[in-house]
């Protein structure tokens, strides 16, 4: 509305100038026309600056709303759908494309409306002033408008390409930066620089095409209006000379034509911006449509009260659970769990063992409801996990992941992440239980020491203990530990076993374990192989009856002197030796003898 009032004020200005010319020519008082003109100038300036402020504010509100809704949907996105998109692309769409949406939905839309209204108003007034001059003007502008519309269409296409290219570039930068130590250790910097350089170049080339079409858009309109101006001045002046038109009307007409130039150019620039913004809207919209996790009917009811699960019934039950990951655009299935059934008591330690790739972590992810089972039933405290609100499930289940996820922020923020209201005593207790007391005491600012991305600033084992403490603070009913002790030294692991014993008196602890010491202690052991439960029992029975378990206990589980012997008699641990030679030409294994440990130059035939 403010914009349209501004348009009204500027459209009235040539009319006021005409009146001024008439007054000057007729020798009448010029005070009134000058006052009218000044009033119109001031009103026009006031309305357009107010409109610019209001539109700018609306734009910021729009971008805030879009980002707020989008991040909410990203955080609640289904992991399968989320995992298919490169993170850099998600980042570009959330940050850069939302800014373009702001331009499209506020600035350029307002520009289109205001300059469109100015053009229409001007054209109508010019028609009233002189029909034939207007016909001449429209024919010149018509050609320019058709060219501009064709250019705007092309612009939208290249803008979409450029935004995709920028997304691809951002994804690759993110991929490399998140694995920078691996890149350096593999001496892959030149390769990566070349690869990223190619993507940057692709974005540069499509960016240049966007600029080329943008650059053509304005001059094509300018040529049309300048041509129209030349013809109007020529024809109009000859009519004035012949006395068929008065000078005031021609001046007013030319003023309107001048006034038309800028809004027309702005209109087509607005079209350009709008089409680029529409491409961004399309990309943001695609991201916002990512499938969401959770069960709407269960979640709508809100979280059910948390508390320890009843001690007399199993905490977790798997009944014939089948699950396949979906990969790629075609959603090809890779079946991982083939009818898994077992139960976990509400108290005590249950260890899950099995060869790599057996499906142990996948099982945990189904308990956390990161993914939904394709068949069968997962139950928590006797209730189907799918029927419980997600918030309740994740409040009951604490998860220490395999790769000990810690985040940028202080140690305290990391510790209280799952329970932000934890008191100082509870924090100290969790720190103590996870064996972090001396680690934190040695940090420069104790609990308030800042950690870098992924918790850098702590060792792998310390990060692992931090994650364990975080889960302890959550006081879960079911605690999932995915190889949580793999980075701990023997002393810390022994201490942690005591912690596990204490914690498992309060809740169900399920641990994927590769250390025989953790497994021996377990009240129940689940042996998995190839996505199936092969055997369950306690250490002694499994050593007697299960061939795979015996093998794992002897090799894959990290044997520790004096641990296996009391339960079963000595287990022979074969020393590891690689095969005689690998197909890709690794030199034959010779064994570490005194001779091979001596440094000597490598002969050319030994290189690989
Ligand atoms: N996100 C995923 N998408 C597709 N397949 C996956 C995904 N995660 C795991 N897999 C596959 O599922 C199978 C089981 O993986 P899982 O991580 O559950 O095994 P695991 O028993 O925990 O192994 P490990 O002891 O090595 O951690 C593997 O074959 C793996 O390739």
TrEMBL record:
Bilayer-crossing regions: 34-55, 109-128, 134-152, 212-241, 253-275
GO molecular function, one term: ATP binding
Primary location class: membrane
Membrane topology: Multi-pass membrane protein
Subcellular localization, as worded in the UniProt entry: Cell inner membrane
Annotated Gene Ontology cellular component terms: plasma membrane
Record has Transmembrane helix as a keyword: yes
Keyword Metal-binding listed: no
Domain ABC transmembrane type-1 positions: 1-276
CDD domains linked: ABC_6TM_LmrA_like
InterPro entries reported in the protein's UniProt record: AAA+_ATPase, ABC1_TM_dom, ABC1_TM_sf, ABC_transporter-like_ATP-bd, ABC_transporter-like_CS, P-loop_NTPase, Type_1_exporter
Stretches assigned to the ABC transporter domain: 316-555
UniProtKB keywords: ATP-binding, Cell inner membrane, Cell membrane, Membrane, Nucleotide-binding, Transmembrane, Transmembrane helix, Transport
Recorded family membership: Belongs to the ABC transporter superfamily. Siderophore-Fe(3+) uptake transporter (SIUT) (TC 3.A.1.21) family.
Stated name of the protein: ABC transporter ATP-binding protein
Origin species: Streptomyces inhibens
